[in-house]
Amino acid sequence: LTELEALALRHNPLTLQASALSRHAARLTLSFLHELGRLEIERLHLFNESLPHNIVRLAKMPDLNLDGFCLAAVPARFCTLKTLQRLNLCRNLLTSLPDAFGQLEQLVSLDLDHNQLTALPGSIGQLKSMTRLSAARNLLSSLPDELGGLEALVDLNIADNVLHELRDSFCWLESLKVLCLRR
Has this prediction a pTM greater than 0.85? Predict the structure, then answer.
């Protein structure tokens, strides 16, 4: 599979535990796919609610879909995927994101809907290329001031959270065209 460019495992009923995979199989799945351009692991329960260590070797991957992965945390090493442009982490078990999240400098679209996030890291303001951010149906009570640094942000969906106020830095989002705040 060294030439594989896209892998989609969408809505697959397969359930595997990391212990069920041999070390060689885990390496084959991720280590030798350096050129992979798109990875979709949607609603597939793998790796004991955590990302495999070798995912950081997918250095050239611009698209990653982990929708419904039952992911409990995003490890800081994940933020070394410098070419990542579109990331879908919807329908997981996330309560926070690592402070290193701002290192994903090429990120254009980020989907965080249907998690249990209580806050977004301040480093999110470093994502200057981001045009779309969706964090609907979480437990966000406030947004970081640094969110105002997202100069390219056009579409922001923060519906169905527990937001009490929008800070003054929100006015810095001059490119914003679509804002969803419904409850």
Answer: no
**Cα 78 → chain centroid:** 10
Cα separation, 11 vs 4, whole angstroms: 20
31's tokens = 């280590």
- Structural domain boundaries of the chain? 6-180
Asked whether the beta carbons of 108 and 131 are under 8 A apart, the reply is yes
Q: What helix, strand, coil percent values describe the chain, rounded to 5? A: 25, 15, 60
- Rg from Cα positions in the chain: 17
Architecture of the domain spanning 6-180 = Alpha-Beta Horseshoe (3.80)
Token pair for 182: 């419904």
Other beta carbons less than 10 A from residue 6's beta carbon: 10
Q: Is 164 exposed, middle or buried (0-12, 13-18, 19+ CB in 10 A)?
A: exposed
pLDDT in tens, 62-120: 888 888 878 899 988 889 888 899 999 999 999 999 999 999 999 999 999 999 999 99
